[in-house]
Amino acid sequence: MKGRDMRKFGVEEELLLVDATSLNPLPAGELIVARNGRETPTGHKLTTEFKQEQLEVVSPPQLTLAEQLETIRTGRALAEAAAAESGGRVAAMPTAPATDSPRRTPGPRNHKMAQRFGLTAAEQLTNGFHIHIDIDSWDEGVVALDRIRVWLPLLLALSSNSPFWNGVDTGFASYRYQAWSRWPTAGPTEIFHTAAAYEAHRQAILDTKVPLDAGMLYFDARLCDHQPTLEVRVADVCLKAEHAAVVAALARALVETAIRKGDEEPAGVSANLLRIWSWKASRYGVEAELINPFTGTPIAARDAIAQLLDELAPVLSEYDEEETVQTVVAEILQGGSGTGIQREAYQHHNNMYDVMDAVVHATHDHHDSQRVGIGPS
């Protein structure tokens, strides 16, 4: 397909900073960004996040899955090099291995958040994966938001990469989603139908004065204020770069498919019910059952994911991404999820150092992406 016919999509990865020797969380985000935060020749940018143990990589928009993988790998390499200057490394890990007191990044907004949200803010140290997909208008964006919402729990399941919280196996595949859900504005949204209704809902929340600003509207998917994109925010930061690239490609295909089906009524599933679907995805990932988006009842995870791939097949085929997506998804379903890799590492000696060592290596490993045929070798 010609590049001009494809929607651009960009990603933001929140990475965990760890000490290069101990692999414990390293509160150096502000220092690293001060040294390296300017935009790079590749178009990447390193930014601070709410906690000092975090580093965000904002990558430039891309057209193809192969380009997306390359830009994710480049962004991780830039972050790794920047962290090394302060004795650190970066790990694609959504929750910290063991830290009770993450350090807040200075600034008046973060100070206000800490005051207003108490323990939720104090304990907050989670790393998500945000995917921006180009849209022509908020009207088009709402068409997509209303129709992708029932599929977002499956993206969460595929990205799941956070079984541990403060050194304990939580039993969840994505405990990040559980921790993140404590914010009052987090989670699924209702059907809007129109951009005016979306704006009214958004303003009603801001009028409560609970969130500080629109940046704290932490919906699983939202319309972006500062650029013409729809932002899918439901996923864990993915352990492997090729998993991240494929989850991003699936999100883009979801948006494109939804817009093409804009004349069809969106599935009438309430936000409360979707929250339960997402809980199940967060609890089990791809290791048990997920909710069938067509019936609202449990089916085997691989069958639910197969429905997702069937739904997106026309767009993925047009974009020449179907084979690669199927290969990587099959690997995730066969035990290759971030959650599975972390738990396997823990079993060796029942310690978090082994988990962190496995995560750091997988964050920067190019072997798997070459094996599945994404991007240049």
UniProtKB/TrEMBL annotation:
It comes from Enteractinococcus fodinae. It comes from the Bacteria. It catalyses: L-cysteine + L-glutamate + ATP = gamma-L-glutamyl-L-cysteine + ADP + phosphate + H(+). Belongs to the glutamate--cysteine ligase type 2 family. YbdK subfamily. ATP-dependent carboxylate-amine ligase which exhibits weak glutamate--cysteine ligase activity. One of its GO terms (molecular function) is ligase activity. The keyword Ligase applies. Keywords: ATP-binding, Ligase, Nucleotide-binding. Residues 83-92 have a biased composition (Low complexity). Its EC number is 6.3.2.2. InterPro entries: GCL_type2/YbdK_subfam, GCS2, Gln_synth/guanido_kin_cat_dom, YbdK. Residues 83-110 are annotated as: Disordered. This is Putative glutamate--cysteine ligase 2. SUPFAM superfamilies: Glutamine synthetase/guanido kinase.
